[in-house]
Amino acid sequence: MNLSPAKQQLLLELATAEQAQSRPAAVAPEQKELNKLIDERARLASAAAAAQLAVDDMELEILRIQEDERKLKKRELDDKRQLSAETDPDRRRDLQHDRYAAKSRIADLLSELKEAHNEIAALRNNRDNHGARLDEADRKIEAARRAVEALPEGDVADVGALREALPDDALAAYESAGVAFFNGRACGGCFIQLPPSERSAVLAAPADEVPACPNCGVLLVRAEA
Fold it and tell me: Which 3-state string (H, E, C) describes 65-105?
């Protein structure tokens, strides 16, 4: 195939660009670090949510204890008021028993309330620690995101423009056989080092001719071109 040296370089550039597009893009270390931090934050957020839920549950338990205490105090006062006017011995005995049970249960609830307040202090501290770790994770993520945004964009060849700059017969030959660089010794398509006679034949081809690899058939673009 005949093609000017300049067009041959464009053909090689097209092949290189399309090969790069077909490969998964390499992940920059900065992007890997950002991904790692985002994953870690998700775990921290889950732990923080669990810590908050534990605080919410304990606050509800404290409210329940306080409500039970309020009801029992009301019952104890009501028993006391009735005892002041009651003269029937059996009725008085029942009221006294009920009042004693209420006062006993109130004492138990006060003990439970004290334990609950101690526990919720620890739970709140744990929740706050998780919140602080989340805030720190957010700061790290923001810094990592800025580092990713600051990365230089890779030079991506315009495949469409390259194709438009090449003649149809060159594109057809490229689609059929492929194109690779010849470094003077080995084919860039099959990576086989050619024997001296075959190397000489490739190098001796006219500058506007695109020789083919005698081993794999790929079109070879030479440095001299």
Answer: HHHHHHHHHHHHHHHHHHHHHCCCHHHHHHHHHHHHHHHHH
DSSP one-letter string for 117-152:
HHHHHHHHHHHHHHHHHHHHHHHHHHHHHHHHHTSP
Tokens standing for residue 111: 């003990």
How far is 147 from 67, CA to CA, in rounded Å?
A: 54
**Second-level CATH architecture of 29-149:** Orthogonal Bundle (1.10)
Backbone angles phi, psi at 185, to 5 degrees: -130, -50
Over residues 134-141, mean pLDDT = 96
Q: How far apart are CA 194 and CA 70, in angstroms?
A: 97
- Give the domain ranges of the chain: 5-24+155-222, 29-149
Cα separation, 160 vs 148, whole angstroms: 28
User: What is the C-alpha end-to-end distance of the chain, expressed in Å?
Assistant: 14
**CA–CA separation, 43 vs 32, rounded Å?**
17
pTM for the structure as a whole: 0.55
Between CA 174 and CA 170 the distance in angstroms is: 6
Asked if residue 63 has pLDDT above 80, the reply is yes
Angle at 56 between CA 121 and CA 139, to 5 degrees: 80
